TrEMBL record:
Domain of life: Bacteria
The protein, known as: Uncharacterized protein
Bilayer-crossing regions: 12-34, 46-67, 88-106
Keywords: Membrane, Plasmid, Transmembrane, Transmembrane helix
Amino acid sequence: MNVTGINKNNKEWMIAIIITYLFILLCLATYAIGAMSLGWLPAPYAPLRVPLMCGAIAYIGGCLYCFRAIYINKCIRKQWDPDWHVWYFIRPLTSTIAGAISYLFLKAGLLVLESSSNAGSSEMGFFALAFIAGFNVDKFVAKIEEVAKAVWGIEKTRSATNHEVKDLDKKE
């Protein structure tokens, strides 16, 4: 077997590992959402149910984004790049963080979804925004930076002003 064959074999194994990683964590996130929805969260953690669910739902959004990137780059474009392997492991984690942060910004009133006081609908708003934040972390972070600039006058980070974010959108 030549070097090209070994590299191709390693690439295929890594794709399988990435898919397995994403799938296992997807199952755990789905189970966690179900368990929290059924009230299985221990009583001391009950006040954290919505933010924890936001994180888990955001993970599902990030996982969907990663699965989509896998089939686009591997199957459609046929341009799988091993340099992006780390991205597939880290991206869902950043999605989870973004989802949890989305709860914080909504709860603080810095982002507004609706004017209704219906508790069930407001939870759905939290969950919907968490999914979107997890699915599109780059745009969510840009929105948070816009809010930070408007509310506190904080300038955007250097990474947000560079073209790096635009390059990430092209990777998809």
